[in-house]
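Q: Now give one record:
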Amino acid sequence: MAKYLISFPSAAMVVLDDEWEAVVRDSHAVIEEAKAAGVYVFGGGIDEDVLPVLVSADGTVTEGGYPWAPPLNGGFTVLELPSREDAVAWAARIAKACSCDQELRVFGFDPQS
C-alpha cells in the first residue's frame, strides 16, 4: 500500500457564496467515507494567515519560504491505498465534493522514516 497526496492550491477553489455550505458538507462526507474505509491518514489546509519561515541547518530563521518557489497553500488529504487506480477514484470523489480539480502524487517509501 502506498500513501497518496490529494491536493489543490487555494486559487483552484472558486466557489460561489451560496455553494459553500454544500461544498463543506460534501467534502466532509467524502473524508468520513475515507475514514470509515480505513484509508484516511490525515488532511487539512495550509493556514494562510500564518506566514512560513525558512529554517537553515544552523537554526537561522528567515521570514517567508523559498523565494524562488511558488507559494504552498490550499488543502490536502493523504490516503493510504492499494493502487494508483484507487487513488484516482478517491481524488475524483474529492474533486467532485470540493468543486475543483485535485493534484495526485504518491509518496516515496522510506523505511527509515
About this structure: The longest helix spans residues 20-36. The longest strand covers residues 2-8.
